[in-house]
Amino acid sequence: MDGDGNTFSNYRVETEENGKLPRKICNLVKFCLFLLVWMYSSVYLITTAPKVPSTFLVPVLPYRQYVIKSRDRKHHSDIDIEFSGPLNKRLIKHPDQATNLDPYIKVQVESFDAMANETALESQAWVLFLLANQDEMSYTIKKEFTLKKKKRRHPQDNQPSTSRGDYHELNVILTNYHSGAFGLFVVINYNPVSTHVGVAGGIMLLIFLYVLIIWDLADRAFVSLLISMGGMGLLCMMNARPLLTEFLKWIHLDCLMYVFLLMLIVRIVDETAVFDFIAALAYGASRGKPWLLVLILCVCAAIFSALLDNVTMVLLMGPIIFRLCHKLALCTTIVLMSVTMFANIGNVLSPLNKHSILKFDIDPAFKAQHITYGNYVLHLIPGVILSMVVAYAVLYGFFQKYLYNTSKVFGSISSLQVRADKLKKVGAHLSQYQNNRITQLRRIENVQPEERKNVDFQLVLSDLKANCIVTNLPLLIGCCISLAVLFVLCLPTIDNTLHHLEPSWIALFATMLLLILGNLQELDVLLARIDWRSLIFIAALLVLFKSIRYLGIDYWTINVIHNLVCNTRKDRQLAVSILVLTAVAAIESAVMPNMVIKSLMVTEAINLSASCDLPFAPLLWSIAYGSSFGENSNLICSLANVIAAGLAHQEGYRYTYKNFFIIGFPVTLATLLISTMYLMFAHLVFNWHGTSVQS
């Protein structure tokens, strides 16, 4: 951003006449680069068939050997196998803790040369330990086997084979050394993605994505679509193209439907006087002090995010923030960013957050450690409160003088005028709404800085209260009933009483009820105000991040965590594990958030607790703090951040990545530091945890 508050994209438009040649060169390079990514992705997507892994249901009999013969007759040096069944994951990862009484099977992969009638390649035998009670639970574990030349007893047998490689047949041999029979579900991938190549390719995609977004070289939604297409092309290049059904799961349609339905509800409620009433109430409580008003909004966002979730709170708080900032001529972007960050901080306690670590399918481990939602909140809420105090101190200390800064607030009035002209084709109501916004922005832009700070409290409060007149009472009643239904149906999901009822279904019930009670006929006008740009951006990001994780970066990260903790002195392992898990969770959430890595990190915390005799609870709290607080440093790695940027864009504000990072990064560092210090103090000094239970 330059001194006048213009972003790079705006600067290019203004200097088009002054520097036509550099601009043409820049556009030509960008055009060629985008076209190259499209061609590369399209060619591989067209020429590569979806990869279908081979699946087997193996009946393993007592003291018997079972051989799975390969369906793929090509020669392979690596093979990836996934086992599902009554497996003891703790002993599989730590075989030194096993005894002679523990049941197990041995797994080995051989490459049989049919022409020479001999085994040419073989892998090392791998021990797969079983649960004593085989009806207790089914676990899934994955292993990559590397095939090497089989050692011969006689030197002359080591001569290279003259047979053709096409006649090699892969055999997976399972030998049961247990007296019981059981079933094992086996998924074989004959050409797994190389972890080193996959991680390198994923990092290159991320760098390309962030370069385009940080410097605002293209629209964010378009960039995410293009790079996600590049991610799919990279998967195809590595012969790992997913099936269409698996690809649709990556989009998380339930998440998109939930956000879309909440947008509908908020747009309908916006037609009532509810948001005007809340804005007047908040301003009255602040007594006209702007930073006290910011504190009230931030605390309310954090509290209600802990009860609901951060996406819902940002959508509900957005109209309130816009009303207050328009009336007081405050820096809308700073206030909106501050409220969004506090919503992310409070979201760590949310029982409805789909990405909460309490939602993962590891309930037996939680029960074994006596971890419930009650003690989860009890242990985390002190750190959340301390983080809120520190976050507000950072915001007030660093950005106090920018709260009335005009150059960073108001920008794209011309873009709003273009949008108003387009909306004339949809409805006069929407066009009038945009024209009113343009008039309001121009009026506030001309206000002098001295006039901004010397606002008459009673006059502004009376103006806010004057807008609280209910003009559509039936719609207001319908909104109250629908929101009540939404909140009531969300309550049983806290303790998984209605575990089959997803938040997206609850939002659908509430939205349909609101449409019926409100008797809304012109849905085209309502749909025109939906932020489709943000929905497309979210969908493309979900596909991109999942494709990058598909390349193996998750398991590489988990191995790094395990090696760092296990190679530390025994008396320092708890402190190191808290630091490492918090830092890795924060970095992961700040770069490319996804529920998969959190699940793997929780599973790794269980393994560390068992192998290193560490208390499980502080490891879990570290992951919770890091994954939630890390979202405040990146505009695109949290649904709430993306939604807030979309709301600001619709209102005509420049909500850029660089602006968000300037505010969010200090807040992230401060909250992570204070939460880590709290965990160290609570669990290293006072030992506020129970004994480690072996999982």
At CATH level 3, the topology of the domain at 54-190 is Jelly Rolls
Give the N-to-C terminal Cα separation.
52 Å
Estimate the mean pLDDT confidence. Answer: 81
Count of alpha/pi helices: 26
Main sheet overview? 6 strands, antiparallel
Percent strand equals 5-15%
Helix content: 55-70%
Provide the CATH architecture of the domain at 54-190. Sandwich
| CATH class (first level) name of the domain at 54-190 | Mainly Beta
Number of strands: 10
Overall morphology: globular
* Uncertain residue segments: 1-19, 161-165, 407-412, 691-695
Radius of gyration: 29 Å
Structural class: alpha+beta
Entry summary:
This protein is an alpha+beta fold and 695 residues long.
